[in-house]
Write a structure and sequence with these properties.
It is elongated, with a radius of gyration of 14 Å. It has one helix and five strands; from the N terminus they run βββββα.
Amino acid sequence: MCLAIPARVIGIDGDTAVVDVDGIRRECSLVLAEDAAVGAYVIVHAGFALHVIDETVAMESLRLLREAGAATDGEAFDASEPSG
């Protein structure tokens, strides 16, 4: 399973952005999201910003990711076990 994470762009240098997710900062490529600007939210996967998203959508996605993380209570997910 692949997961793309919403992140806020806090700096841009050419085709590279510095993005922030809950205080964690990483660099990512902007070659696929050339319309990104400082302050915008982008979906990031494998080091690439895929596209710009609405801040409200980003906040809801991050809330759901936090909620899912809290629900696992630190336990690793085992895809080999069927759920329910």
